[in-house]
C-alpha cells in the first residue's frame, strides 16, 4: 500500500440517496425542480413544447437534463445550478424528522460507515442534509460534480466505481444502498453491491425529466434481482438487522 493512500476501512458502507429518499415525494420538490428546469430551457430561446421535448429527451438519454444541456448548448452548469437547485425553497418544503435522525443514530458505526450518494450538486445535497439535521450523521458525500467536464451520474457504472474509490472500499458486496430510483438500484446490484433496496412510495407523484409520474404498485417487488422494496425507511431495521444497534 502506498504511504499516501490510507488503509481500507474494514467496515461496510451504507449509501443513502438523498432526494425523494430522505424526504417524501409528497414535498413536491421534484415538481418545483421540474418547473425551474423547464424555465431554464425556455430561457435558451426554445418554445415551451420544444423545451419540454428536450428536457425529457436529455433526462432519458443522459440521466440528468443538465448533462444534455452541457453537451448540446453553450451553458455554464453552475449558472444552471444557481437558477434551478439554488432557488428551491427547501426550508419551506422539508423539515427535520426526529424519527429519521434516530434511524441514522441507531446504525452501528462499529459495523458500517454512512455516506450519501446523489445525482445533485454538492450545494443542494448539503442544504438538504442540513435542513434534515443529518449533517453530523453522514461521513461522506458523493455528488455529481457539475464543474467537471463529462461528469457521470447514477445509474452509470462509472459513477458507482468512482463512489467506491472516493470511499476507499474495494469489495462491492459490503455496500448497502437505498434509492428511490429502481434503475439506480438495479445498476448497483448488477455491479455486485450486496444489499440493495428500492424506496418506493405508492400513490404519490414525482417528476422525472419534466414528466409527472404516479408511483403505482411495482410488480417487480422482491423479484429475482434480489432487490427488496420498502415505502418507509424504518423497514431497513428489519431488512438490515445486522447493522443496527
From TrEMBL:
Q: Which SUPFAM superfamilies match?
A: HAD-like
Q: Read off the Pfam families from this record.
A: Hydrolase
- Write out the GO biological process terms: nucleotide catabolic process; pyrimidine nucleobase metabolic process
A GO molecular function for this record? nucleotidase activity
Q: State the PANTHER family in the record.
A: PHOSPHATE METABOLISM PROTEIN 8-RELATED
Q: Which NCBIfam families match?
A: HAD-SF-IA-v3, Pyr-5-nucltdase
**Official protein name in the record:** Pyrimidine 5-nucleotidase
Amino acid at each position: 500500500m502506498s504511504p499516501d493512500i490510507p488503509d481500507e476501512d474494514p467496515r461496510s458502507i451504507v449509501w443513502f440517496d438523498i432526494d425523494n429518499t430522505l424526504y417524501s415525494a409528497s414535498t413536491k420538490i421534484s415538481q418545483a425542480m421540474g418547473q425551474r428546469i423547464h424555465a431554464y430551457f425556455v430561457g435558451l430561446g426554445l418554445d415551451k413544447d420544444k423545451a419540454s421535448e428536450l428536457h425529457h429527451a436529455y433526462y432519458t438519454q443522459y440521466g440528468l437534463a443538465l448533462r444534455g444541456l452541457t453537451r448540446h448548448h453553450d451553458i455554464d452548469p453552475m449558472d444552471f445550478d444557481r437558477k434551478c437547485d439554488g432557488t428551491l425553497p427547501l426550508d419551506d418544503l422539508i423539515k427535520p424528522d426526529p424519527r429519521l435522525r434516530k434511524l441514522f443514530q441507531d446504525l452501528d458505526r462499529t459495523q458500517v460507515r454512512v455516506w450519501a450518494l446523489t445525482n445533485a450538486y454538492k450545494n443542494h445535497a448539503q442544504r438538504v442534509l442540513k435542513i434534515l439535521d443529518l449533517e453530523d450523521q453522514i461521513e461522506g458525500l458523493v455528488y455529481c460534480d457539475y464543474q467537471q467536464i463529462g461528469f457521470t451520474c447514477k445509474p452509470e457504472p462509472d459513477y458507482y466505481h468512482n463512489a467506491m474509490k472516493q470511499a476507499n472500499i474495494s469489495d462491492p458486496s459490503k455496500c448497502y444502498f437505498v434509492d428511490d430510483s429502481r434503475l439506480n438500484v438495479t445498476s448497483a446490484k448488477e455491479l455486485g453491491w450486496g444489499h440493495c433496496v428500492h424506496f418506493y412510495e405508492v400513490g404519490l407523484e414525482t417528476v422525472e425529466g419534466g414528466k409527472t409520474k404516479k408511483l403505482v404498485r411495482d410488480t417487480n417487488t422482491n423479484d429475482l434481482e434480489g432487490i427488496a422494496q420498502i415505502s418507509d425507511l424504518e423497514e431497513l431495521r428489519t431488512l438490515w438487522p445486522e447493522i443496527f444497534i
